[in-house]
């Protein structure tokens, strides 16, 4: 299994995706775009594409952020989807999937930072890849927007603050507005970078304190994510055996 990570900022970590891939011996490649690393020219070099979050939006221009090319990332995502690859987007990544498929990003009803429960929809409760999640399930959040929905998209999980937490776009394409990959280390990097954002958000409904985020145990959420990923790869292998 060849997995390509697209990372937008030095403080935006792959989190739990990295030990999951390394422990299983998967081949990893990277586009750390903040460090000038290029996107793949095509989807030929990987079996799975994971596009992580960032403070950017699909609407962010190159003039506003010279190392972030939303159009190029959407083209890569679309190529990967058309080639039958697994594609997972987290936060900004989920919004880029929607945009790549013609569904515009929208502002979420509420800003969410910290750990809050998500609830599976009826489709989510019946979904074999999410059968181990339980509902509600407390997961990480750090967002103000949410992905657009195509006519074929299915919302699998919601939260009180956001109606699009997990979206399935096709058999192998999933958008996570929430952050099940957060670890204590990944969250600390965001905290260190986001003092002003946290100060401005203080007192809003779905904002955890820094102390609460530092004290929370991320392990259960990570393990649920790992099980989902294992199931997803097994299902893909059954559909397209090597």
UniProtKB/TrEMBL annotation:
GO terms for cellular component: cytosol. GO terms for molecular function: transferase activity. Keywords: Glutamine amidotransferase, Transferase. Residues 42-187 form the Glutamine amidotransferase domain. PANTHER family: GLUTAMINE AMIDOTRANSFERASE YLR126C-RELATED. NCBIfam families: PRK08250.1. This is Glutamine amidotransferase. It comes from Phytobacter massiliensis.
